[in-house]
Write a structure and sequence with these properties.
9 helices; single chain; OB fold (Dihydrolipoamide Acetyltransferase, E2P); disordered N terminus; Rossmann fold; five-stranded antiparallel beta sheet; alpha+beta; 2 domains
């Protein structure tokens, strides 16, 4: 690996009051975001949440309807894409097939008439451990190697900010996991600011220092990966970042340390410090791996929630763990992940079981499950065309 002085420390990125409207819908509602210099920041969300639009705004490929974009304290809102200190690594890599690896990496430097372009390109290739393949052409490389070449081509320009747009999406699972670790190592080595856009939760949590979960044009929650997973604040974050067992009910008891929620005649206790709301109707939850499956009713204790009896309606073996679906009647279905430390499943299909978890592992959310959406997806040209057509039809019908 190259030493840290390969590139100067990246610049911080600040988005101030960003809104982006397309004909007929809003892609980004009101976005304020600060990404510190030198950090690995992941923007995580499903298709249509606005994350790719955000990346395109930062890259200068789209113009905001309202708001400002600052890189290193300098307002670049009206600066053209090629004049911004930004480089992007796309999922498609976009390498020139008629050029060798070294020619691909040096291309941008030569166009800008930078001295020692080839030497700098070799330095970037050494950083991604591909200098020994400098004379090969892209089609002679594996998908992972092509991804590294694309990365070398981006960082050789020493951008203040490197944008990663689903860069590992085309790789198989094993190679993707390997590249996740390598990307994080490279980011630490070169010290650039990385903004990584992805829908892959594991990818974001493996690499990023900070993750922002985006939904329908707004950031739902932002923080360290472990913080978001252990203590989600909304239904969307709880369900998108991993799986969650959620229960909705009324708060029927409150102390300085815990709240008690009554859900379908069952009582669930959650620490006050881990609950966003302390009165009225609330949603509380627990992660599946925190839940324990019992074939006999466990003794009730103050530090444990116990639900049941229920019935096992599905058993799925995945190697490391077994997933159980337990029907608890009015409480709904609970998911349990049990690590495979024994020789077989804890309970079979149709078995009567109870579930329990430590009170300290529960969490309370700031909203309750609802079926609603603010905006349609922002990433489909078909959707845009359909909305425009509907608008024209409505206008014609009015006249």
């Amino acid at each position: 690996m190259a030493v840290r002085e390969f590139a100067e420390r990246g610049a911080d990125l600040e988005l101030v009051g960003i809104q982006k409207r397309f004909p007929g819908f809003t892609a980004i509602e009101e976005l304020d975001l600060v990404i510190p210099a030198g950090s690995f920041f992941a923007l995580l969300g499903p298709s249509g949440c606005g994350k790719t639009t955000t990346l395109r705004l930062v890259a200068g490929l789209e113009e905001p309807t309202r708001g400002r974009i600052l890189i290193g304290g300098k307002d670049v809102t009206d600066t053209k894409s090629h004049e911004r200190p930004v480089n992007t690594v796309f999922q498609s890599y976009a390498l020139f097939p008629h050029m060798t690896v070294i020619e691909n990496v040096a291309f941008g430097l030569k166009r800008r008439r930078i001295s020692d372009a080839v030497a700098k390109a070799h330095e970037a290739l050494r950083l991604v451990e591909l200098d020994h393949l400098a004379q090969r052409r892209p089609q002679q490389l594996s998908g992972g190697q092509q991804q590294r070449v694309a990365l070398a081509r981006a960082i050789v320009n020493r951008p203040a900010l490197l944008l990663l747009d689903e860069p590992l999406g085309a790789l198989d699972l094993k190679l993707r996991r390997q590249m996740q670790l390598e990307l994080k190592t490279i980011q630490e080595e070169v010290g650039l600011t990385f903004l990584h856009v992805t829908h892959d939760q594991e990818e974001a949590m493996t690499m990023a220092d900070t993750v922002a979960v985006m939904n329908k044009g707004a950031i739902e929650q932002m923080g360290a990966p472990a913080e978001l997973y252990e203590l989600p604040r909304t239904v969307f974050v709880a369900n998108f970042l991993g799986q969650s067992n959620l229960f909705t009910g009324q708060v029927v008891g409150t102390t300085s340390t815990a709240i008690t929620v009554e859900a379908a005649d069952a009582r669930i206790v959650v620490p006050t410090a881990r609950a966003q709301r302390h009165q009225g109707e609330v949603a509380v939850g627990v992660r599946p791996e925190k839940v324990v499956l019992h074939t006999e009713e466990p003794a009730a204790t103050a530090d444990r929630n116990v639900l049941g009896p229920g019935r096992v309606i599905d058993v799925s073996f995945s190697g490391v763990s077994t997933q159980y679906l337990v029907d608890l009647g009015a409480l709904g279905t609970v998911v349990v992940f049990a690590q495979n430390v024994g020789s077989g499943p804890v309970a079979g299909l149709g078995a009567e079981v109870w579930v329990s978890w430590e009170v300290a592992h529960g969490f309370g959310l700031d909203d309750v499950p609802v079926e609603a959406g603010r905006f349609p997806a922002d990433d489909s040209t078909t959707s845009i065309a359909a909305q425009r057509r509907e608008g024209l039809v409505s206008e014609l019908e009015e006249h």
